[in-house]
Amino acid sequence: MHISKDIVLLITHSGDFFTIDRVAEALTKKGVQPFRLDTDKFPLEVQLTAHFDQSKTYHTLEYNNQLISTEQVKAVWMRRVWEPQFGQELAPKFREACIRESKATLNGFWDSLREARWVDYLERMDAASDKLRQLRVASEVGFQIPQTLITNKAEAAREFFQQVNGKMVSKLLTALSRTMEATSFFFYTSTVKEEDLQDAESLRYCPMVFQEQIPKKSELRVIYVNGQVFVGALEADVYANAKADWRKPGVEIGAWRHHQLPDEILRRLQIFMGKFGLSYGALDFIVTPSDEYVFLEVNPGGEWGMIERDLDLPIADAIANTLLS
């Protein structure tokens, strides 16, 4: 079936729910047709064709018995891009080439949509995902940041451990793939003990981020949407089992609470997001027992469903309005 009206393209994956549904509902209520593209279903279940000639270029996309053209796409919500799902019938020796060609084809598709309104442009999201750049920019705009060391030298990690009086956490610079086994303390933001560093020579193979452990009164998830700010807070004593990272699977956390950011933090937040050119970002902060705000990171595609659900915040509506602005 060919869709005849203008659409907003929602780029995600087949395991995505709630947030994607809320935005689709908000767009529909505003009289706009959303079209969901599950990137992991390409190329097996999504048919994508690019047409190039002297007069014009366009793509057609067919998925779930619906056909659209790039000429219909007025806005794009870039939520997630996942690798293709291939079954056992594809020989391993061909898998890498098929994934590579599929990614290249999708990149051409994104390029064909460059005239649409994006939340957000993929290049800006990729640039903003650099955690070291985040820390530098956060410091430049006046945010307090944790004392941080990135190293592949075991001795440097041990010295830093002493420097921060044994109050140290570790994390990765890049996001985990869905296939990585999260079995060691390296994978989530985790507290580091001295014995963890006794045999840390494996750092030779993979540099790591080490930070001072910031004392917490609460931890904030701050959602920025085109100048609007929505905040959820977790009180530290409520989720004591997740002292390092409440995102870890199996960690029981308490209810989210409303939180008002000080004007100075809001001002710096606007400047920070402007430097990355982002319309959307999910930022994490710690509020210390002395009420200082410490910036941890920004995720240009980060989650917000839990605070919309628990706090009845109109985040989906704000994203829909931004896509249509």
Automatic annotation (TrEMBL):
Pfam families: ATPgraspMvdD, RimK
InterPro entries, per database record: ATP-grasp_RimK-type, ATP_grasp_MvdC, MvdD-like_ATPgrasp
ATP-grasp fold RimK-type domain boundaries: 128-322
Coiled coil location: none
Domain MvdD-like pre-ATP grasp residues, every copy: 8-124
NCBIfam families assigned to the protein according to its UniProt record, in alphabetical order: ATPgraspMvdC
Protein name in the entry: MvdC family ATP-grasp ribosomal peptide maturase
Protein's organism: Okeanomitos corallinicola TIOX110
